[in-house]
Specification:
The protein has 130 residues and is mostly beta strands. The chain has one domain: Metal Binding Protein, Guanine Nucleotide Exchange Factor, Chain A, CATH 2.170.150.70. The chain is built from two helices and ten strands; from the N terminus they run βββαββββββαβ. The protein has a seven-stranded mixed β-sheet with strand order 6-7-8-9-4-3-10. A three-stranded antiparallel β-sheet has the order 1-2-5, with no helix packed on it. Strand 8 and strand 9 form a beta hairpin.
Length: 130
């Protein structure tokens, strides 16, 4: 585990998170449209350093997960939720990470989840579009 930093495009939102290996992609309707690719960490491993007042949130369907966006530049910086696997979690978007080399992201394992069918521990049949 190591501490990595991330931010939105305009710099209003900054965070740090203690990341472990591995990423996640979901096929639910909002994640598919966002091309959501994230690293999930327990909420205790996430620290918002700046920009709490710059964040807007989007919730849909069951309204349990919160997708947090910078209201100035529109970047989805992280999402929050609760899972059987992690308990309370933050999912930092890979695209918002500032100090992780592209080669490391490409080498990281990807866990696919079937959010479209609310089957979070089962990968969807098709993942190429994610």
């Amino acid at each position: 585990m190591r501490t990595c930093h991330g931010s939105c495009h305009c710099g209003a939102v900054h965070y740090e998170a203690d990341l472990a290996a591995g990423t996640v992609k979901c096929n639910c309707s909002v994640c598919t449209k966002m091309r959501f690719w994230a690293v999930q960490v327990p909420s205790s491993a996430f620290r918002l350093l700046a920009g709490e007042n710059a964040l807007s949130e989007y919730r849909f369907a069951a309204k349990r997960d919160v997708h947090c966006f910078c209201r100035h530049c529109g970047i989805n910086v992280f999402s929050t939720g609760h899972s059987a696997r992690l308990g309370a979690f933050h999912a930092v978007t890979v695209a918002s990470l500032d100090d992780v080399p592209v080669e490391e992201l490409l080498a990281a394992p990807v866990r696919y989840v079937d959010g479209r069918n609310d089957a979070w521990e089962v990968p969807p049949v098709e993942v190429r579009h994610l």
